[in-house]
Amino acid sequence: MTDEVPRRRGRPPAGGREAILAAALQLLRERGIARVTSREVAALAGVSEASVFYHYKDRTGLLQAVFEQGLEPLQALSSGGMLSGADLHDVLTRFADTLDEFLEQALPVMSAALSDTALRDVMAAYMTAQDLGPHRGVAALGDYLAAEQAAGRVRAGVDPHAAAMLFVGACYTRAAQRQMPARVNELPPLENIIRATEELLRPGPV
Questions:
Q1: Which of 55, 62, 140, 202 is the most buried if burial means most Cβ atoms within 10 Å?
Q2: d(CA 140, CA 16)
Q3: What's the DSSP call for residue 11?
Q4: Across 146-167, average pLDDT
Q5: Residues contacting 195, CB < 8 A, separation 6+
């Protein structure tokens, strides 16, 4: 995919943007960044190659858009609005599921950035400008746990933000394993991680 934008005639049909993003992510997962070209993406998405350029100037812009799409489920989490006042088990479940959904889409793009200088620089600038990174999830969950601790619903003496980092790290490890090319032993399922975290954080004997 080049940096040049071909001349366009008319507007591509509705729904093409979503199909293009889905195709780019599928190619990235299955065949690597080298196969994420305008021709391959267009063929898989069932659109014209011109439609790809209509929405995205180049491959870097396309993959950044894939990453940005993956961020959508995290918006409520980062604000903390979906966490306040809810039961611990429900919050951990919602948090884990949302983070897992994000990482499933974002990790292939971040891995691709390691081997593509242009994409790496664009992603670094975007994430810096938006203040993106694991600290956002740790802060959101940690603040919730701190509030629950103050209310007596989380064990006293536990560092809420350290506990949040352990939980985020466990979710990341499970998602990262799915990106590995080799077949490896299965890690504990999310539900087991949620239950174990909940038992460690609930007031009372461990």
A1: 62
A2: 34
A3: P
A4: 95
A5: none
